Each structure stands twice: as C-alpha cells, then as structure tokens.
## 1
Amino acid sequence: MDRRSLPLVLAFGSILQGCPWIGGCGSFERTEVVSLSQEDLDDLVVQGRLQARRAVAVDTDTDTDADTDTAADTDTDTDAAADTDTDSAVDTDTDALDTDGVQPPLVDPTGLSCQEICAAWFDWTEVLDCRGATPDAGDLLAVECTVDDYCIGGRLHEVVTTPTRAIGPDATARRLAQMAHDEWASVAAFEALATELRTHGAPADLIRRVLAAAADEVRHARDVAALAHARGGVVPRLQTQAPTARTLEAIAKENVEEAIVVETWSALRAHVQARMATDPAIRAVMQGIADDETRHAELARDLDRWLRSRLDAAANARLDAVKADAIEALRQQLATQALPDETGFVLGEPSPEQAAVLLEGLAASVWRA
Ligand SMILES: [Fe+2]
Ligand SMILES: [Fe+2]
C-alpha cells in the first residue's frame, strides 16, 4: 500500500500517537481518578457515551424484575441518588479506603459498572483496570481508571462571498459562530461542486459522495450554530454569488487548496478537539464532525486523483506547486493565529506549537505523495 492510499483514519492515528498532550494520545498507560456528579453522568448520556450501556442495564432490569427497573430509574434521576451519595455507597467506599486500604468493589447508584463508567469517560481508550475511589465533595461517585490511550483528529468555494465576521460576547462565542458560518459555506461549496462535476462528466459515485458531504455539512452547521447560540454568538448570514463555468484545472486547484490542505487539516484538528475540548457539549459535536470530515478529506483525495487523471503533466505540476504553497500558507497562518487561552481550552484547539507538530505529521504522511 503506498502512502497516498493509506486511509486517513490510520494516518491521523499515526500522527496523533506522537502527541502526548492530546489527552493521553499515543499508546500508553495512565491511571486517573474520575469524580463524577449527577450532572457529569447526565452529560455522558447526552453525548451518547453512556446511553447504550444504560439502555442495556434498564433492559436487563425490565426482563428480570419490573420493580427493580423502577427503583433504578428513580435512583438515577432524582432524590434517591442524592440519598445514596450522602449516606450509603460513597461513604462506604470512603470508609473502606480509610480503614484498611483495600479497594472496595464499586457501589454505583446508577447501576453501571466501573468498567462502563471508565470506558465512557475515557472515550477511545482501552480500560485496563478499574476500582472504586473517593468522590470529591458533592459528587455522586468516583472511579480510578487505568487506561491505555490511543486515538486517531471547511471547505470553501468561489461562490461563497460572505464579507462579515461573526459577532458574540466573547472570543469563544465568536469562534463558534464563525465555525457555524463556515459549515454553511461548506454546504454551498459541495452543492456547487456537485453541479460542476456533473457538467464535466465526473463519475456518478464521486458526485454522490459530494452530495452526501453537503448533507453532513448541514448537520455540522446546525450543531455548531446551536453551540454558538448557547454562548450568545451570532452566525453571519451566508452570502453567495452565482457560479461561473470553470475548467477542470480551476476546480482541481480549489480542491487542493480548500480540501486536500485545509479540509484535511480541519479533519485532523476536529479529532483533537473531540478529545481536548473542555466543554463536553463541544467534544460531542466535534466527535461527529471529526468522523465526517475524515470522510470528506478522503473524498478530496479521490477527487484529486480523478481530476489529475484528466489533466496533462504541466497542469499536474502546477497543482503540485499550488499544494506546496497552500501548505506553507496554512503553516504560517497557524503559527501566527493563536486563540486566547480560555477559548483554546474550551474548544480544544491546538496551540500554535501543537498545530506545528500536527502539520508536520500531515506533511510527512498525508501530503508527501
Ligand atoms: Fe464540516
Ligand atoms: Fe467537510
């Protein structure tokens, strides 16, 4: 398998393995105590990281004993959970730890096992060991997880003409609002691209994938806009112009700049954000975006192959130069555009130094061909 055909999901995994700052990325063992409030558990359910497991637990209860099922529901959702927190399960754990140092079995008022909670909290990791721990004051439960971490990370078009910048009460809200706009721009970009590809007789499968990507971008735009609105951000209204008839080389040039370079970088960055964002709602949205954008970046590579196959050697050489320039432009942009620290943490965006490492990884394993 040559490097160009290495699936991006594997290439990204390889790149991120060298980045221990990404929440334990790489393949290495670590042990961490996780103290969870009811709100934290609810967040995990909202993100879908606990939902399936909880559903299994409820189903089992229903199958065996309806009364137990009802009790579990009440316990998890309302007062019973708080009662357990204050006087039974958690205290029992604490006492046992204090008196004899022997780790007690986890007594979990949610009915979830220690393994399940660790797996949900440390998404994308293998849980090697797990035991009960002492919760922080006011929390519902705590677990000590030993995990072996691993992990794998917009496209524009000439029709997009939006001149305005996002507005919002702080840098995070503005950044999210701009991101939402850029997702809408990607919808327009893919739709316009599909029309152009049809005109140029592109394979039906490529066009189908472009239209599927447009549908993905609608979902991204809505999800990110919801995050922006929740923080008071105002998404700029997308403005577009009528498409012009373009040559295959013009389309290929844009695909190189916007997709082979920028969208691929965005896909890798999204995987980082899915792990690093301190806001759980943002992590959840970025996980979905990361998977979709990885697929879009693969589409960009397939599109690049088809377009290059229709162009002569001189045009292909020009595309190579465009790619080198685009990579360099991105490198300079990332080196100079640092977000405020707080915004970077909330969104999980890599710092300029971290971005430089990631970019080198892309240059070595994805953009090299
Ligand atoms: Fe997107
Ligand atoms: Fe995309």
## 2
Amino acid sequence: MKTLSPVDFNLSLLEEGFTAQDTVDQTINESSMGDDRDAFYVCDLGDLVKKHLRWAKALPRVTPFYAVKCNNSVSVVRTLASLGCGFDCASKAEIQLIESLGVAPSRIIYANPCKQASQIKYASAHGVQKMTFDSEVELMKVARCHENAKLVLRIATDDSNSVCPLSVKFGATLKGCRSLLRRAKELGLDVIGVSFHVGSMCRDPSTYTQAISDARCVFDMAEEFGYKMNLLDIGGGFPGSEDVKLKFEEITAIINPALDKYFPTDGGIRIIAEPGRYYVASAYTLAVNIIAKKVIMNEQSASNEEEDDETNEKTMMYYVNDGVYGSFNCILYDHAECLPILHTASSTVLLYNRFIYFFKFQTLVLIYRLLVSFEQKPKPDEAMYTCSIWGPTCDGLDRIAEHCRLPDLQMGDWLLFENMGAYTVAASSNFNGFATPDIHYVMSRPAWKCMQQINTQGTPAPVEEAGMACVAATCGRESSVDLPTKLCQNHVA
Ligand SMILES: Cc1ncc(COP(=O)(O)O)c(C=O)c1O
C-alpha cells in the first residue's frame, strides 16, 4: 500500500493548536495586505475523517459509496478513497476520476439509471459492473453494451418531504418492477439488488422505512424470477451540517431498526448507501469580499416623524466577488439558504499567527485566542442595518441573500459562509469571466494520523459494537476527531 503524503492531497497540515478557522483568518489578513481580495474557500479535510467515523458508528451495517456529483474535488475524493469509501459515479468522467486514484472498479456503482450507451461500454471495458436501471429501454441498452453488468433496480420513493425530490425523474414503481424483472430475465441479465433515493435533504425519516420495506417486496418478487439478490443501496439524503431540524443520528435511529427488520444481519445482504452532502457540506467555509456597496435611503421611514431609529432610515446593498453563477449556484439548484457571518478579525491576527508560528507554545496560542476573541466580539452598541447581498455578475438574478441584518460595512470587508461544501464548487461556472475561488485544503495532524491508520488497518468498529478497547485519544482544540488506538478490518471489498 502506498504511503499517504499531504502533497498528493494538496493539503497543509495545521500546526498544533490551529484550526481551519485560523487559516481563514490568516488568508484574509494576507490577501488584505495586497489588492487582490479574491474569494476563497478553506476546506477542512479532517472534517471528512470525522464524518467517516461518525458514519461507522451510526450506520455500522452500511458501507458508504460517496456520491461524486456532490463535490468532485480531487482532494475530497482522494481523502474518501483513503478512508476506504466506495463511490457513486453518474458518468464516464466521474468513473475516470475515481479510477485515476487507483480505486478498484468493485468500489464503484454507476448509479445513473439513464446512461449514454457509449459510457456503459466504457464501464464495461473498465470493469465497473454495478449499475442502476429503472426502465426496459435501459435494460436493452445494457444487454447490448455490457456483458457482465450487475444490475441494481432503482425504485421510486415518496420524497415529497425532501428539499430536492428525485423520484419525479428516477425510480420504478413497485407495480412496474415485476415486468422489469421479467424482461431482465428474458434478456439474460443479472439483477443483484435494489436501490432508492429518498430525495436530497430528507425531512421525514419514515420515507427511509417505507423505501426499505418496498425494497424487501422487490427482493421477494425477484425470487419469483429466479434472482437471489444480495445488494441493498439506501441512497443519499442525509444532512451534512448541524443547522437542520432533523439530525443525522435521528435519521439513522429510524433506519437501523428498519434494516434489521426487513434485512436481518443473517440474510447475507450487503448494504451500501450513496451519501453526498453528508460528507462534504460542513468541511467548506467560503470567504467573500465586499467589492461594491449602495446605500438606499428609506423614504417612508425618513418621513415618519415618530421613527427615530436611524437604522431604519437606510438599507444597504453589498456586492461581493462570488455569486449564484459561481459557488452560490446552490441557491438556484439546491434550494440552499446562505447566511453571511461577518468576519471581523483585524490584521493584528496575522502578526500573532506569525509570532506563534515561530514560538509554538500553548500559552501563546491561548493569548492569541483571547486577543482574537476580543476583536471578533460584536460591539454591543453597533447599529445594524437591513441589507441584501449580491454576486458580481451583471445579472439581476445574482442575489445571494436579502433581509440580512449587518453593521454598516465597507468595501474590502469580508463575509464568511459556512457549510458550503455540497453542490457548490461542483456546479459553479465562470459566467461573466469571474473565476471560481481557490480552495485551501487543511487537516489537523491527529486527523491525518487517523486517516493513515484507517487507510492501512480499516475503519475502526464502534466501541459498543466491537466491544474492543478503541480508546479515544482527544486531539485537542484543533480537531474533535476521536483517534482510535485499535482498529479492525472493515474495508470496502
Ligand atoms: C443517485 C444519487 N445518489 C446519491 C445522491 C447524493 O444525495 P445526497 O447529497 O442527498 O446525499 C444523489 C443526489 O442527487 C443522487 O442523485
């Protein structure tokens, strides 16, 4: 096995006591010294490691096949490959990306029920066998283009309670499954399992229960045609951040008993999932710079004599250097709501950073934190104004947020947007000539060590399930990754 090197991940390891947030501060301070205050991301790849351990604990029976469409950055997929994840690819290019990392084709599911014939031939030539279908036409195409396909029947779900429904486009009805299985048999195709997707950002966990029970029906139906299926794919739909009503563990608490009921452990069924957002959303923070500003006098308030609050007299329009044609395409395509956080650390932070870099003493880190926290505290008497935030293009559609409350900001000030890793960079364009932001990848040393251990020894079994002494070694403030001291084999086949 190849030794992992930070260079291959294009990442900087964080000095002890430092966090991804410090990288945001430092990058802002460095770029604020020059003219180019370009928008940028900081991606904490250690957050992916954390998510991976959390997944293993919450869904011990389910192997994650990360949905590449969600964020196809090489550093991200390389991290997940090193952690032993499988991959859900929707196209030839996504398969090529995963192949280029040296991932075995058995760790790929070509999870697009409507594929181009030439791309099925590519999958065939490259040993990618698992692929989804939901129509007779697709079956005939696969019969022509792929001799050794292992087919997975995608069924529709009631995803009316999900933010981004998918079953409007994909998934066979239970009624339709019988004729599809019959046709597959006639064509001599191998159907090995069932998949579904409850819709992205699922808000009703009972959708999973219903879909798992429906999948059981299809497994039983398939036996009538002589198929002994062995793969259940429960798709994606899991939240990627904590700012949601329904937490990840609340969903998995519903999924696990449903799996145990309909697919008991002794049934020999392999269970996989296709999480996208779950793994990457919270790892990314986007920093944008205010490039222009307009002050709009509110005539109604100004003429109201009883109104003496000056913050109601004007509203602000701030223009920043990334918008809905770039990272914020998630507002249009992913129904995202993006709320800004004001960045207030001053250039003195950079001096502290430099100082501490040379004198890595914990006390200095503490002094630094104290000083930064003083600087970042909102001033209690600071006036707040209603404002809207706009992207840099010439399109009126390019609005990021409205009705925000922020202090009176100036050109050159920075705004931060957290949880920006899912369906953002993957779909952004350079419309109007605006470049996509640079991404600074970072990871704490304990997280790096943990990833290396998982890479060589497999994902640790959760302590409760394994009953083994996986002592959690706390990694200090820079990361809350629980570093197991003992690991056990749980690699993706
Ligand atoms: C087939 C398939 N699998 C997985 C995903 C990832 O979903 P999520 O990001 O909600 O986990 C998607 C998203 O569109 C999808 O279409």
## 3
Amino acid sequence: MAVYPESHIYDVLIVGAGPSGSSAAYWLAEAGYDVAVLERKHFPREKTCGDGLTPRAVRQLEDMGVGDALTEAHKYYGLRTCAYGRELELRWPEHPSFPPYGYVITRHDLDMLVAERAVKAGAHLFQETEAIEPIIDTLQPSERISSSRSDIPMQPAQESLPRLLARTSASAMQPAQESLPRLLGIRAKDVKSGQLADFKARYIILAEGTASRISRAIGAKRDKRLPLGMALRGYYRSPRHDDPFIESHLDVRDENGDTLPGYAWIFPLGDGRVNVGVGLITTSGRWKRVNTSNMMDVFISNAPSSWGLRPENSCGPATGGRLPMGLSTVSKCGPNVLLTGDAAGSINPFNGEGISYGYETGRIAAACIGNALCGGGSDALYDYDYRLQAAYGDYYKIGRTFVKMISQPEVMHRCVQLGMHSKPLMEWLLSIMANLLRPDSNAPAELAYKLLAAVARSTPDPEDFTMSLS
Ligand SMILES: Cc1cc2nc3c(=O)[nH]c(=O)nc-3n(C[C@H](O)[C@H](O)[C@H](O)COP(=O)(O)OP(=O)(O)OC[C@H]3O[C@@H](n4cnc5c(N)ncnc54)[C@H](O)[C@@H]3O)c2cc1C
C-alpha cells in the first residue's frame, strides 16, 4: 500500500513524468521548491516514440546535468535524407547554443534518467500513481504572497530585445486566452491497490502527454484547425544499427502509390536495433483516413535492403500515437495551473519533434511558477502564454503554413524533387525545420527564415483546416 502525504500542501504538483513533467520538476526542485510528481507507470517504462534527440534536446539534457549519462547512448551527427532514388547526408549545423550532434536512445531509458535527475534535485516522485480527477477550487481564494523573485534561468530561445519588446507590448495589449479554473489539487489512485489520495498544491503543472485526462476535465481544448500528426514505430534488428546518421525518407506513399504528406524514418540505436517509423499530418480531410499500418508496410517493403528490415528481424508489433503540433491547445494557463509538452500541443509542426519542446516548455513553466511563488501570483502564470509566443509564435506559424503546403501531394512532390537536387538548399531547410537557426547570422537559411517570419507576422494563419473546437 502506498503512503501518501495527504495533509501536505506542495509548492508544485506535476502530473506526468515524461520529458515536460520531469524537466519542470527538475528546474523547480533545483531552485529549492517543494515538488511532487505523479506518474501512472513505473520506470523504466516503454513510451511509443522515434527515440531521436536533436541538438535542441541534447542542450536541454546537458543543462539538466544529464549529458554524461547520454554517452552510453548512440551518438549521431546528422540526417541522411532520401527520396526519388537520391540521398543527401546533412550534418547538424554549427551553432553557438546547440551541439553539432544528437543521440538515439529509447524512451524506456531516457525518461527514467531524467526522472531520476529530478528526484536527485529534490522532487518527490510517486510512481504507479494515476491522477484521476482535478480538485477544483470553487471559492477562488486570493493569491498567497511571498518574497523575492525566482532565480530559475529562463531560456530557451535566447529572447532578443525586439522579441522581448514584442512580448511586453503583446502582454500589455492583449487579453489572456480563456482561463482554466483554479485547482486545489489532484485526486489520484494507487494503480496497484486502487487506494485513493488527494494531493494538494499551490501550483499545478499538467504534463500528461496526449492522454490529457485532467487537462480535458478542466476545459483545455485542442484547436482542430491546427496541425495534428499520427505516427507509428517498431524496432528491428539491423546490421546498420550503429550508422552515424539518422535517416528520413521523404517520398512515402500509400498502397496505391500516391504521395502522402509525411515521412518515414530509420533511427539507429547502436544496440543491435533500429527504430523504424512513419508519420503523417492528418489534420485535413482526406489524410484523416490514411491507415498508418499500411503506410508502414509499404515503407518497410521498399526500404533499402542494407537495413535488413525483414519480418524475421522485427522485435515486435509497431505501436503508434498522436502528435499535437504548433501549440494547438487553447487555454494553457489558469490562475494556478499550466499545461506543458504534448498536453499544450507543443510539437514542432515542421518535423514532429516533441522531446526538446517538452523539456523547454517544462522549463518555461517552471520559471513562471517560480516567479508566482516569489510574489508574482497569477500574473506570473499568465505570462506563460506570452513566453511561449515569444519563443515559438512566429516559428510555429510558419510551420503551420508549411504543413498546409505539404498537405497538397503535388506541392510536396515538387518541393522534395527540387530539394533533393541541391545539398545547400536541404542544409538550410534542415536548420529551419529543426529550429537550429543562428540568431547572430545572415547566412541564407537565416535570411530566408527572417523573410518568412516577416510574412507570417503580417498574414493570418492558414485556415483550411476544420473550424470547430473539440
Ligand atoms: C510514434 C511517435 C514517434 C515520435 N518520435 C519522436 C522523436 O523521434 N523525437 C522527438 O523529439 N519526439 C518524438 N515524438 C513526440 C514525443 O514522443 C512527445 O512529443 C513527447 O513524449 C512529449 O513529452 P510529454 O512530457 O509532453 O508527454 P509524454 O512523453 O507523453 O509523458 C506523459 C507522462 O504522463 C504520464 N501520465 C499520463 N496521464 C497520467 C495520469 N492521469 N496520471 C499520472 N501520469 C500520467 C504518462 O505515463 C507519461 O509518462 C514521437 C511521438 C510518436 C507518437
């Protein structure tokens, strides 16, 4: 039987110990706050994922002091992109803030490392403890005040002065999005015994991933106009398990040979296996009905034979999941509650990457709650939306336009064909799509991005997706 400290009031309670929950827990615990994390599984646990860490994710892990533990994982140096019989090897760009390498590591191992890091910093992790319902404060009590400001270092997008000014003026002029209710805590259940317990806290972070049980219960919604991806992955034993490049195939097709708006990947794990998967954008009409299992079968049967992706090398059936992109959750803040990672819809629409954005949004949420606990109150929490906009607003808006473009097969086909004939063009694209542009550079990729950002700022969002909110 689990022992739950029911009378205790934590500074911060976090639901979910994936990338975003453990990052928030680490930064808050490291700053000295009293933090509890509820996780329904027991580590190590499986999580369906491509297992690919880009330089952005590595930077966050190094900042949390997990860098040394990663040296056991498979290190890689860039992306081999393949389509229409051509292949290009693109190295990660040199960047002042991000390393020129990434890792492939199973979430089974990675999520445990980061959760353990948060515990080492002082967070209390309650495993096999499932959050089942929010305890909503119907009386709306006044804020508790304490003293100085938070010292959790803000990052990740190195806010420039113009961005900061834009954020400040946006913050002053725009009303906050529809607010979530104030919470007193979370009712949870011991998964094994069924024992119930009420966890109470001054501030709460919902880092539940796409499950989003508590987020939905308090009224958070996904904006259905914004991109949603579906992806499927499986493991294979492969002679190329230690390839120094991850590989993506941009000419994925359905069983009828028609081009699909997505890509397939082969990510080498260095332990005898590769992670193989397919992903596509399913937001708009016809792509909603695409069967990702068929898409995977078509890809596997056409994949380069050197990878050895044959049935006898399969390590088990493929599993899949949803990818909520482009900050697609509306209402990410309440007076004492914030949503992070997939619960906030924070996946990058350009490439489906979500781990680094989980770490980053967890860290931004931690900084806002740190400020709230130091006297900033609810205003510090509403600053979260503005900080997310400052870090990702323009970039994700361009990403949404990109998604709209590639959802048209002819456009996708022409762009990929054009790109595959120019390595410099694909190198720029890689910097843009992996969000690794240099803030201090006027190289072609950065100039192209600045132009796109200026256009994005002055135009409305793409609107061809369905219009209703779920
Ligand atoms: C097939 C696939 C491939 C992908 N490949 C990549 C990739 O290669 N690289 C990349 O960067 N991103 C990838 N992603 C995206 C990435 O997996 C997510 O963006 C990332 O896991 C989000 O982290 P998170 O912390 O928000 O949520 P999660 O990782 O989902 O963590 C949520 C945690 O909360 C727990 N939880 C949920 N509900 C409750 C509850 N009620 N009570 C207690 N605990 C609860 C869960 O058990 C889980 O541990 C992929 C996604 C899919 C589906």
